[in-house]
Amino acid sequence: MKIRANNLDIEVEDTGPGAPGEVRPAVLLIMGLGMQLVAWPPQLVQALVDAGYRVIRHDNRDVGLSQQLNALGKPNLIWQSIRFKLGLTPQAPYSLSDMAADSLGVLDALGIRAAHVVGVSMGGMIAQRVALAAPQRTLSLTSIMSTSGAKGLPQARPEVIRVLMSRPKDRSPQAVVDHYIKLFQAIGSPGFPMLEAEMRANILLGVERGFYPVGTLRQILAVMADVNRATELAQVRVPTLVLHGKADPLVPYACGEDTARRIPGAKLVGIEGMGHDLPPDVVNHLLDSLLPHLKAADVRATTPTP
């Protein structure tokens, strides 16, 4: 369904709201760079619903079925990357804080006062921004395969960067899917490989639903321009779980370690063999830590302060 959030049209899926009169704790799932709400594995969504949660997913601005910000134009990523390497803050058409405001606007539109906030990759960065901007509305924070953005952290492996910098040979669905197959094979979990047929079906679903690469370029700049988040994370005061693959070739495990160190009281769980994707066995490992984290935060939220 389409809702109005932060003055934008945002596509939302609201799963498991419960029976009339039933109030379930909400979990807001925020997806990563250029990815759509359908990229959340149904297995994870259903497990959360079965555990008693109302699950909210949305397409971030500039992706999927949410509003495309065409008036902002196509950014010059090469020039902004040069500025970044020279120590200058890139000029981004919008910020991760703006995208966090979109997420909070989704909660507003659905009448949800507070939610558990879970984000993967760029979505983890946005989730961190939500926790900083609105701690009173953040029941808990879970940052998955993400980073603080601090300077000096390890970067993606060279072979991954080469695939990231490549482009489909044309805009046909076949060429786009083939391109993303190479990307997900490069960043995937070596300990939990996905069958190519399953991977292809998942990618095709997103491509047919909405393919808008220029929006991804604008999102990249929002990530690059968010240069102060690392130092601000010390201000996070909500229960925090950091989940990260120890075999992540795109956002190395050290980035997860750094994020957990910067957030007071954060718990870090490293998963052997996990890369930068969400195959079924990885989802099982994530749920082993995520569900107890959410339940513990629920208990804290309902326990009177002495």
Task: Give an overview in words.
- This protein has helices spanning 42-50, 77-85, 96-109, 122-133, 158-165, 173-187, 196-209, 213-225, 229-232, 253-262, 280-302, and strands at 2-5, 8-15, 26-30, 54-58, 115-120, 138-144, 240-245, 267-271.
- It has one domain (2-155, 213-302): Rossmann fold.
- The chain has an 8-stranded mixed sheet with strand order 1-2-4-3-5-6-7-8, sandwiched between helices.
- It is an alpha/beta fold.
- The chain contains 11 helices and 8 strands.
Query: Helical proportion?
Result: 40-55%
Question: Helix-strand pattern, N to C?
Answer: EEEHEHHEHEHHHHHEHEH
First-residue to last-residue Cα separation: 42 Å
Strand content: 15-25%
CATH class: Alpha Beta
Beta-strand segment tally: 8
Strand and helix layout:
Elements (H helix, E strand, L loop, with lengths): L1 E4 L2 E8 L10 E5 L11 H9 L3 E5 L18 H9 L10 H14 L5 E6 L1 H12 L4 E7 L13 H8 L7 H15 L8 H14 L3 H13 L3 H4 L7 E6 L7 H10 L4 E5 L8 H23 L4
Parallel strand pairs: 3-4, 3-5, 5-6, 6-7, 7-8
Antiparallel strand pairs: 1-2, 2-4
Helix pairs in contact: 1-11, 2-8, 3-4, 5-6, 6-7
Describe this protein with a few key phrases.
single chain, 306 residues, alpha/beta, Rossmann fold, 8 strands, globular
In a nutshell, what does this entry contain?
With 306 residues, the protein is α/β, with parallel strands linked by helices.
